[in-house]
Amino acid sequence: MEKKKTYIEDINRGIYDIKDEVNYSYKTDKGLTTEIIIEISKEKNEPQWMTDFRLKSLEIYNSKPMPEWGADITDLNVDEIIAYIRPNTEMKNKWEDVPEDIKNTFERLGLPQAERESLAGVGAQYDSEVVYHNIRQELVDQGVIYTDMETALRDYEDIVKEYFMKLVPPTDHKFAALHGAVWSGGSFVYVPKGVNVDIPLQSYFRMNAPGAGQFEHTLIILEENSMLHFIEGCSAPKYKVNNLHAGCVELFVKENSRLRYSTIENWSRNMYNLNTKRAVVDKNGVIEWVSGSFGSKVSMLYPMSILRGQGARSEFTGITFASSGQYLDTGTKVIHAAPYTRSTVNSKSISKDGGHAFYRGLLKVAKGAHHCKSTISCESLMLDNKSKSDTLPIIELDNDNIDIGHEAKIGRISDESIFYLMSRGISEEEAKAMIVRGFVEPITKELPLEYAVELNNLINIELEGSIG
């Protein structure tokens, strides 16, 4: 008698889908108007140049068409999105001072425990503003600055003005312009020359309100001969209305410095995740991207490395898991703009239950970037015959004194592998899970410990009962 096979329509996202009552001290109306932009800037007590920047960004946003390539975003109506919601609290530097309902949310997500055990600094954003920020005194003594962007704009205005949206200008694309108009929250990190931050900093972005947008801005500057590992986590409960995430990350890695930027994005499946991340790397500097994309209805995310200094390096390690109702269009872009630069791309995707995983990558080598080297590996695993996986690697080479390698594999789980494991007494479900865990292991080992555990838990939940 054939074993009855079960199927679970959607995963139980447990703690991620717990909704808090929406308490706020201030929020804008839906949509985007000049009046709303001025209102946001006034509410945040910003300098005039930032108000002008927002208004110019709104003009650019209104002048640009919606992108017609990539994922289908026709159901996203920005006029229905609330651009700014200030939670009912000011930012706190002591955990016990955070309001109870917000504190409980971050307790469930494990943030205070992670801070106590393995982090040098933590920022926690709730809807549009950061509600908690703390950094160890020894880093402060070394001159490290780690704070929220609203504080940075007030206390370090000259630095913010020099770098803010210079790497990702509002003219870059429609959602960069949207970000420039309505950005709020996010993290500011400045690491002085010669300082190694050997314990990670982490920011966690939590969206709670339905029908809202989150537009945090992360700006990280590493001066010469410095080092940092920055961790970013994101989640939101599921609602029956669309939410929008259009954050922006700008990373400046100076000569001989090294930055690792790790992200786990576990948004709910009513989220449009249209994020922009970019790094510029000077001579002998290193940027390492570690990226995990699991949630959201739609993602379009392609972290970009601009290797502008001789000997600069970029490493990208990414995993995407697309399940029912998800179109995750992700990848990376690397620009070799200087000689003797090197890049490595290792991307893996898993799709199941009709999910669509799409790798979209760009490798560009400039005319003067001789003796550069790049290795790209894209692997896609489909767990059933309803799912889709695509790979679109674009390679533009303007000189031929280079070493470029590209490899792509797309396939389903091998029946022979499952049969072999079952012949050793392993169940069909566990055999499949073992193969998937082995597939993502190179990614898992690059993640911070608590995120590696979270990744394995997510995989186990996604696979539970889905054989057949």
Describe the model:
The structure is a single chain. Strands 5, 6, 8, 9, 11, 12, 14, 15, 17, 18, 20, 21, 23 and 25 form a 14-stranded mixed β-sheet that branches. Mean pLDDT is 83; it is low at 1-13 and 15-23. This protein folds into two domains: 14-414, no CATH class; 415-468, no CATH class. It has helices spanning 34-43, 48-63, 100-108, 111-118, 137-141, 149-155, 157-163, 174-182, 415-423, 428-444, 449-463; strands at 24-27, 85-87, 121-126, 129-135, 145-148, 187-191, 201-206, 213-214, 217-222, 227-235, 243-245, 248-253, 258-266, 271-273, 276-281, 286-293, 298-301, 304-307, 313-322, 327-330, 333-336, 342-351, 356-365, 373-382, 388-397, 403-412. The radius of gyration is 22 Å and the shape is globular. The longest helix has 17 residues, at 428-444. It has eleven helices and 26 strands. It starts with 23 loop residues before the first strand and ends in a 5-residue tail after the last helix. The protein is of the alpha/beta class.
